[in-house]
Amino acid sequence: MARPITVEDPDDPRLSDYTDLTDVELRRTKEPAEGLFIAEGEKVIRRALGAGYAMRSMLLSAKWLDVMGDVIEDTEAPVYAVSPELAQRVTGYHVHRGALASMQRKPLPAPADLLAHGDAIRRVAVFEDIVDHANLGAAFRNAAALGVDAVLLTPRCADAFYRRAVKVSMGAVFHVPWTRLTSWPQDTQVLRAAGFTLAALCLSDRAITLDELAARDDEKLALVFGTEGDGLAPATLAAADEHVRIPMDAGVDSLNVAAASAVAFYATRPRTA
Fold first, then answer.
1. In whole angstroms, what is the distance from residue 273 CA to residue 270 CA?
2. Percent of the chain, pLDDT > 90?
């Protein structure tokens, strides 16, 4: 059982995991390099622990000590009790949820290893260069809710364990198996070798409708999504087996990538016997 340790100095080195959480560039470098991520809020912290991630430490304001009492009792990691004002000075923002935890990352599997689970991995999502953490977190939440078996991120995609992505996903990033591709779109061959049909969501003259794709009920399907502005790269479109569009009305040409993923995941969910 950890006993809360009161900290009153914002420069205390024991709080280094939590410094400057609003500095996106710093955290993008610091967190993967040091093998940590930040879980914010009671529900997210509990979901991270439930998914088997080890806690490095916890940062709590006084009113959260009782709420998180059972977690404190079960952990050997240090728990730092701070005032809301000190938490803001350390993190760079008002921590209105009052509870932060620094968690230890797990090594990501190789893409081929992640896909090599037979019938357990039949439908995957590939996100190409999605840099908005809120969009990525929402897409992960959609994937978890709508039965996607795994998520693959291209090399330039945002970090799924960045604090905002984790928060928006409501901890879904802990429950959907995922990994990062190392070479894209060359790694389309990894998917093809595992038996997947690659369906690129895009606006294209050769695109079939999402309904047409869903009616085929492919045995293994990889849905590939690009950025809202540029869409998928030409090389990705050339490597895809199918181009797929979601029919639009009212002069709207496309949906936000998170919304599009929800529609595509629902439409292509595996049929039950």
1. 10
2. 87
